[in-house]
Amino acid sequence: MAPVQARHATAPLRSLSWDDGAERRDGPTGRERRGRGRTGEWVPLAVASFWMLATFGAFWLSDLSDRVPNPGVLCAFVLGAAGLFALGYSAQILLDRPGRTATAPTAQTTWVRRLVFLGAGYSVALSLLRLSALGATGPQDILAGLRDPAAGYLHKLDAYEQGVGQGDALVSLLTFMGVLGTVLAPLLVVYWRQLPAAARAAGIVGLSFDAAYYLYTGTLKGLGDTAILCAAGLLVVITAPRRSLTRRRAAIVLGGAIAAVFVGYLAFNQAARAESFGTNDLTRPTPALVSLVGPRAADGLTATAFYPTHGYLGLAYNLQEPFVWSRGLGSAPAVSLFLQERFGVDTSARPSYPERTEDATGWPSDQYWSTIYPWLASDLTFPGAALFMALVGWFFARVWLDVIRTRRILPLLIFAQLWILILYLPANNQLGMSPESAFGLITLLILYLASAARLVRV
User: Fold this and answer.
1) Mean per-residue pLDDT for 208-217?
2) How many CA atoms lie within 13 A of 137 on its CB side?
3) What is the mean pLDDT of residues 276-280?
4) Are residues 353 and 321 in contact, defined by beta-carbon separation less than 8 angstroms?
5) Coil/strand/helix, residue 130
6) Rounded distance, CA 62 to CA 58, Å?
7) Is-contact 307 364, C-beta < 8 A?
8) For residue 15, what is the DSSP state?
9) Cα dihedral sign for 52, 58, 60, 65?
């Protein structure tokens, strides 16, 4: 389908869908589409459940499992939380009335195009401000960070400790506009074929600047977020009922390429950090692996496996500590930091679970992970955190149904953000770790509630 463009600024615009009408002639029959649509409703649950159980299973295959002081409690909690997530998701799908959201308006060409440009501009502006604050002067600095990610990461930590960039009015403004950081990757992937060339180019530039900052600082967080947002968009493309087999295969290949590049950089990055930070005792490869792939690659592969699994040991330590309510300040560190800097709130008087566990066990809350659960439990208790996962599963299914039925922008963006929460579940509350992510999600949720009340139509 050729890009849809308005002839006049005031002319009505055709609705924009990621189904390719040119492929309908040789596509599946109506009955096949309905059957595949019902199957597609369960795909996110299958992927999310596999990830939760696979990372937990891999943890028990590592040497870290020998350090768990309470294996029974740990297994009961993790499997219970995963089960409640699946229960909430299943309840939404099974109790849903097909067609109840079918009349919602579809996304409009003008909105998608504008949001791609706005998202690209936001990424460029925020990345340039951050790079300038940390002393980057050109592409050579980006390449230096790419070659030595551990040095780049240490440089960023030192700069943050010295307060570099704190209090900058423009950075604060962009932080409040964090919702613009949620739009670029998913919209660019889902609507790529329908976007004009200028919007595609702007999107690529925006993602490139975003990646440049994280490569310069050796930080995996932003690169991982972008990879997840792109993967969420590809999942939407793959499950679209009118996509041809060729398009689906192309999306799968692209997703595999993104995953391979990210995992490759992850292995290189983590091996460099382990060597520089002296954490090789936690990521020591087996002799068999060293003989098979060599010491450098073995270090990288072991560190890569350590990355999404070691948080379960931190969770085991946290499960031993008594509950002390953090009064709403423990779940999202970025929000707590914002309240402290802007309103003088004393957050140290209400430490989170991971911070209290660090004092009791020595497991560092800012260096190693403890999964998302202790952060949530800081305000909800551990039983409350497990029950919260049922709500997450229910809402995850709700927005997914909106995505596949209405093609609206807002559910798509929330769906992509929830993937960040789920895939970082073995690590931390990723959406609450940076101010722009926290404010971006809050803005999306407010808009979603306004949409449910028919106050907005996006």
Assistant:
1) 94
2) 0
3) 67
4) yes
5) helix
6) 7
7) no
8) B
9) negative
Q: How would residue 25 be classed by pLDDT, with cut points 50, 70 and 90?
A: very low
* pTM (2 d.p.): 0.86
What distance in Å separates the CA atoms of residue 38 and residue 87, rounded to the nearest whole number? 17
Give the CA radius of gyration of the chain.
22
CA 319 to mean position of chain CA atoms: 25
SS3 244: coil
- Which stretches of 61-178 are DSSP H helices? 71-95, 109-133, 139-147, 149-161, 169-176
The pLDDT of 84-112, averaged and rounded, is 77
- Which residue from 290, 272, 288 is spatially nearest to 280, judged by alpha carbons? 272
Report the amino acid identity of residue 93. I
Q: How far apart are CA 367 and CA 154, in angstroms?
A: 12
Name the amino acid, one letter, at 267: A
Distance between CA atoms of residues 171 and 163, nearest Å:
13
Helices (H), 344-381: 353-361, 373-380
pLDDT tens-digit series, residues 179-189: 999 999 999 99
Q: What would the pLDDT profile of 117-160 be if each residue is shown by its tens digit?
A: 999 999 999 999 999 989 898 999 999 999 999 899 888 888 87
How far apart are the C-alpha atoms of 458 and 448, rounded to whole Å? 9
321 pLDDT above the threshold of 90: yes
Q: How far is CA 449 from the centre of its chain?
A: 21
How many Å apart are CA 387 and CA 390, to the nearest integer? 5
Q: Which of 119, 251, 232, 134 is nearest to 186 (CA)?
A: 232
